[in-house]
Every structure is written in structure tokens, then in C-alpha cells.
């Protein structure tokens, strides 16, 4: 089972408008609401692939109730832990004219110490059933900066592998706990290391404790630096649409590969195919099955021979 | 007491962002939520002026619960009638850079026949205590097109005067019931009559049954056509800010003038001053007290002698 952790779960609300015109009024007659947050999106992709997955994390208030109701409707196993505050909403305005998305992300409620204790208890129980734990997204206010390091240590002690997808101080503070895979995008990697060279920056994260680094480079695919080697995987065709959710689809593939013990080139091929298949879909957590099946056998994966740190 | 009716009450959510950039992601750390809908805004203005007012209308679901909690906090008397559906939200993005607002209005839930029957019972009771009834805003889906005509007839039978602020078919269908004042803006007046000339269009609404027409012309003030005469009232200075809520402040002044039996020129002076004082405030239902007090004695009101229909 792949356990996903979403500490800042959200109700994702999408407003469809004909055209977004700043400083004007828009009538919205088409609204979609669903549970969101990066870990939940990852579980949604895994569920669609038929991989057993469980959602945990923190959710509360009337917004928490609404997002959990939607998780149940979607058939996802919900082990979210209730918190005192009201979960955040994200509002995405999708313009029908060009399919483009404008996103407003609320910060999220302040997590109380008692909430974090409750979560620790539930997480320690769930992690015993997990092959892989996915830790995704920003830390809500109120959590200790090393929250992900604590969760990685508990997973490691229980024998579960970990995939971490976060950025900034939350990423840096987690590295010493030795996550099995970290997946920053190129901008996050440069921001956290201060280094624009993707290979050098990935090597730095490994030096700080990450066992493997898979950096996403948007339409240019993935750059992976692992104990087994380094690879570059590139989508064989460019897809137009909305890149929101491509990162979560990538993480789903990395977690599935880790759970199956697949060789890195196979996992990277899946990850690029699944990310690319998320682009034509306007909502994170969805992917286009036909695109995925077309690409998963054709993504070129190239080994980088001058960048093996460990052999 | 002035009774305001909001059949499509909302939770108005305002997101403050540094700058609205279409097709990008925005972090929102400053969120304000309050009860909204045009009638509720009118009551808020009346309450700030110290005029007794009661809020009624329709609200339901978790959004209805949230908006009613905020009404109580604001000290407004709440006689909203619960409905089966979940009330709508409106989302307004205010850019800190220029104070400009971009608005997303949800349509609102479908009102069930039983909800409308419940409302009729409550309204018939409340209207007996009202000097003036304010009917504001669009009709939610599910209501009969002549909903406002029905409510105006009940008010008239109970001896209460009515102020109607709506547009399109809801306005047209209400005229035959003889509302005491209708307050379209210039664009709504032109749309409903097909006539660009404001005086001729106002005369047409009177011919269809409205006892008085007060048309708002944005920064150019008000044009009033009544049984007692016709007037033009113009703000003596232009204010910059957000015109959202200026119409509701205007309606509050019209209702207060009607309740007090004030002469039309005094009421129009108040209405222009209060509308203008709403412009510097980013949120509907608020007005700047200092601006209001400065303008209420200085708004020029000019009688139009060639446009008296009845004398």
C-alpha cells in the first residue's frame, strides 16, 4: 500500500468562466469542487492506476467535512486526522477561451500541538501497512520546520520507503532524515541550493542526505541522480494544456516504481509518461489514459555517464 | 423598521493579493469572509446609520450557516429562512497594487417550492412590522419570475412601502405590482427598456407601474423621476476606489428617506452622499463616515422642469 500524507489538505474549487477579465465581474455557473492538496492528487492518480493507496494528513472544519465527503465519493481510502481549524480552499479560475488557469492558494489553518500529536499516533499505525510513504506539499503554519524529517524517520523505522515532494525550508530540514527520493522542480532545486546547474544542485541534495533526487524540468522531462546512476528522461512529444498536477502524477509514478522495486529507467519512463498525460487535463489528479499508454513505451531515457557520484 | 429581502444571500469572500496576474498562481494570506447579497449590504449601511433594520431572505447549507454566524457578529437582526440548498459564495480578488476588484459570482442554489412557501409565511409576518421593504438582487433559480411582484403586493397590503433594486426580467415582471421606488443603474435601465435616453426610459418604467424611478449613473450621480417631480443629483467631488456597494448604499438612503417621509431632494442628497462614501471602501456594505458627512450637505440637487410627468 502507498500511503500519501497531505498536511495541508484543501478543498479545490474550480470556477469556469468564458474569459478572465481583471477588474470586472464574472458570472460563474459551472463550479467543480473536490478534495485537493498534493498528496491527495497523488493518491487519486495511484487509485486510477489500480494501486492500493491510503490518504492521510490533516483536515478540519466545514471545509474539511466537504473535502472528505468528496474523497469518499471518489472511492479513496480516507485516514485524514481531524484538526481544530477550518481547512483551506484553493480557487482556480479556468478560462474556457484558452483553458488557462489562474490559481489562488489560501495559506491554511494554524495546526495546534494537539492536532500534530493526534496525527503522529495515526501515522505510526498506518505506516506499518505501507510499502512507500509519499510526503507532499507545503507545511501548514503551526508545524515544526522538521515535521517531514520526523515522518521520514518513523517510516524508515517501520521499513517503508519515502518520496518527498516539497520545497524551501521544509525540504532542506528533511534531508538529514534520508528520504529515499526527493522530487523538486528545477526552480525549487535552484532556490534551495542557490545553484542553477541541475546536476550540481542534485548532487548537493544527495550530499545533504537525499538517497535519490529526481528533478522535474517541465516540458524537458526529468533529471535523476541516484545511487544506481544518473538519467535524463524526456517526453517524446509536447502536450498543451495545464501543467498543474503534472508534478503529482510524476510523484505517483515514482512511488509506484519504488513499491514495485522497478529499475530506475523504467520508473522514470513511467513518471514522464504520467506527467505528460496530466497536462491535457485541467484538474490536478487526473490524467489522460490514452496519452499515458501511448507515451509509456516511447519515452527515451538516457544514462548520463559523467555524473555518477557513487560508482 | 426597514426590512431587507435577500433571496440569493451569499458568503462574500475577499482575497487580497499583491497583484492579479492572469494564468499564474497567487498565495493568499489575507482573507475576509462576510455575509453578502445586496439586501444584506443595505441592512449593514442602515445599521451603521442607526436605523432599525431586519434581514430576511433565503440561506442554507454550510455556507448559509457561515454567513448567518457573521450576521450575528455584525449585530444585524437575522430573520433569514433556511433552504435545502447550499448558499452561494462570491469571490472577490482585490489587488493591493491598485485596490481594483475582480469578482466571481456563483449563481446560487435552486430554491425548492417548499422553501418559497416557508419564506412567504415568514415574510407575511415580518412585513407587518416594516415601514419600508427593500427587495434587492437577482432571483435565484427555482423562484417564479414574478416573485418580486408577489412580495410587493403583500407589502402594499400590509401598508409598507417598497424599494426594488433588481434588473432584467425580474425587474420587468415586478413593475405591475407598483413598487414605490425602483433603482436601476443606467445600463440596467437601458437594457430593460431598450432606450438609451435616461429620462425617456425612466418614464417608461413609471408607465409600467413603478411609482418612482431613481436611476444611478455611476460617478454622474442620480436621475430621479417621481410623482412629485424630477431631479438630478450629482456628487460635488469624484472619489476613487471600488464602486461595488455604492448602489446598495444608495438604496439604503432611499429606504431611510421613504421611512422618514423626507422630501425627494433631501433623500437624493443623502443617497448621492452615501453612494459616494461607499466608493473609498473596498467591501460592499461599508462607507466612509467622514466622506458621507462632508458630502451630505453639499450635493447639488437640480430640479428638471421639462420632465414632470404628473404636474
From TrEMBL, chains A, B:
One of its GO terms (molecular function) is ATP binding. Pfam families: PfkB. Signal peptide: none annotated. Belongs to the carbohydrate kinase PfkB family. One of its GO terms (cellular component) is cytosol. PROSITE patterns: PFKB_KINASES_1, PFKB_KINASES_2. Residues 11-283 form the Carbohydrate kinase PfkB domain. Coiled coil: none annotated. This is Hexose kinase. Keywords: ATP-binding, Kinase, Nucleotide-binding, Transferase. Its EC number is 2.7.1.-. It is an enzyme of class 2 (transferase). One of its GO terms (biological process) is carbohydrate catabolic process. PANTHER family: 1-PHOSPHOFRUCTOKINASE (PTHR46566:SF5), 1-PHOSPHOFRUCTOKINASE-RELATED (PTHR46566). It comes from Kitasatospora acidiphila.
Amino acid at each position: 500500500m502507498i500511503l500519501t500524507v497531505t498536511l495541508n489538505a484543501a478543498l479545490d474549487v474550480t470556477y469556469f468562466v468564458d474569459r478572465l477579465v481583471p477588474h470586472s465581474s464574472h458570472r460563474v455557473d459551472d463550479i467543480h469542487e473536490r478534495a485537493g492538496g498534493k498528496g491527495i492528487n497523488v493518491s487519486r492518480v495511484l487509485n486510477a492506476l489500480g494501486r492500493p493507496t491510503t490518504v492521510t494528513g490533516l483536515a478540519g472544519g466545514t471545509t474539511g467535512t466537504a473535502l472528505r465527503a468528496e474523497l469518499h465519493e471518489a472511492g479513496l481510502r480516507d485516514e485524514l486526522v481531524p484538526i481544530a481549524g477550518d481547512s483551506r480552499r484553493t480557487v482556480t479560475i479556468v478560462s474556457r477561451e484558452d483553458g488557462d488557469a489562474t490559481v489562488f492558494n489560501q495559506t491554511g489553518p494554524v495546526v495546534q500541538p494537539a492536532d500534530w500529536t493526534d496525527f503522529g499516533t495515526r501515522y505510526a499505525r498506518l505506516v506499518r501497512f505501507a510499502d512507500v510513504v509519499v510526503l507532499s506539499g507545503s507545511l501548514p503554519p503551526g508545524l515544526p520546520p522538521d515535521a517531514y524529517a520526523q515522518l521520514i524517520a518513523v517510516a524508515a523505522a517501520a521499513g517503508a520507503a519515502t518520496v518527498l515532494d516539497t520545497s524551501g525550508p521544509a525540504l532542506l530540514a528533511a534531508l538529514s532524515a534520508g528520504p529515499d527520493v526527493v522530487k523538486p522542480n528545477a526552480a525549487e532545486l535552484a532556490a534551495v541550493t542557490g545553484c542553477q546547474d541541475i546536476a550540481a544542485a542534485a548532487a548537493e541534495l544527495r550530499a545533504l542526505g537525499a538517497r535519490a533526487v529526481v528533478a522535474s524540468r517541465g516540458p524537458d522531462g526529468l533529471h535523476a541522480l541516484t545511487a544506481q546512476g544518473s538519467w535524463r528522461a524526456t517526453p517524446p512529444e509536447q502536450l498543451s494544456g495545464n501543467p498543474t498536477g503534472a508534478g503529482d502524477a510524476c510523484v505517483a509514478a515514482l512511488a509506484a516504481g519504488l513499491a514495485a522495486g522497478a529499475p530506475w529507467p523504467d520508473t522514470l519512463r513511467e513518471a514522464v509518461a504520467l506527467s505528460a498525460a496530466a497536462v491535457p487535463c485541467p484538474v490536478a489528479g487526473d490524467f489522460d489514459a490514452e496519452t499515458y499508454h501511448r507515451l509509456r513505451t516511447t519515452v527515451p531515457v538516457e544514462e548520463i555517464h559523467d555524473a555518477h557520484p557513487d560508482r
